[in-house]
Amino acid sequence: MFIPKSFAEHNQDEIFALIDEYPLASISYIADGKPCVCHVPVLHCYENGKHKLITHVARANQVWQHTKTPWLIVFMGASHYISANWYPSKQQSHKEVPTYNYQTVHITAQARVLDELEAAKTILAQTTDFFEQKISKQLPSHTAWQLSDAPEPFIDKMCAALVAIELEIIEIQAQFKLSQNKPAADQAGVVAGLTQIATPEAVKMAQLVAKFAKS
C-alpha cells in the first residue's frame, strides 16, 4: 500500500482499536490464478503474548481451500469527504483542492484452517460474545445471546457447515489520512465544517482530525 509519511500509523493500540471498531474485513486471496475477495468479520485476539486474527466462513465459501499463499486482509475505518472551502488558507491563496480522509489497515497473514467441530464452536462463541458485549455496552437492557441459548444438536449442525480459521500476522500496514499534512488553522476548519454537518460519520471524522492534529 502506498502510504505518505504524514499518514503512516505505527501505534498498534490505535491499529487494533480500529479493527475492534470496524471488524468487517475484505479478504483478498488467489484461487486458480485469479484474485478473489470475500467479506467477513475478522476479530483481533491477543494470546500468549502474541497478536492474531480469527474468523469463520461458510464451508461452501471457497476461500478456506486457498491457503497456500498468504491472504491480504483489509479493514476500513472512518472516512469522509473534505471540502477545500473549509480551509482558511483557501480564502487567501485559492490554491487548495478537496480531498477524502480515511483510515485503513492492511494485514498480510497466513491462514490456518481449524477443520474440527469444536474449533468452529469456539470461534463462533468468541465472535458472538464480542458482538453481544458491544450491544450490551450500548444498550444495558440487552440480554446477550450465547451458544447455549440454542439446542446443542442444532448448534452442532450449524457449526458443521462452518470452517474456523486462525490467521498468523506476517505484516501490518496502516494509513490514517486525517489532515495531518495541513496547518493547524486548516485542521480546525475541517473540524468545524464536519461538526456543522453533524452526521455520525462527520462527527466521527471531526473527532479523529482533532485527535491526530498537530500539537
TrEMBL record:
Record flagged with keyword Hydrolase: yes
Coiled coil: none
Keywords per UniProt: Hydrolase, Protease
Superkingdom in the source lineage: Bacteria
Pfam families referenced in this protein's UniProt entry, alphabetically: FMN_bind_2
Matches recorded under InterPro entries: Split_barrel_FMN-bd, TR_PAI2-type
Signal sequence, renumbered to the chain: none
Molecular function as annotated in GO: peptidase activity
PANTHER family according to UniProt: PROTEASE SYNTHASE AND SPORULATION PROTEIN PAI 2
Protein name as it appears in the record: Protease synthase and sporulation protein PAI 2
Organism, scientific name: Moraxella cuniculi
Gene it is expressed from: paiB
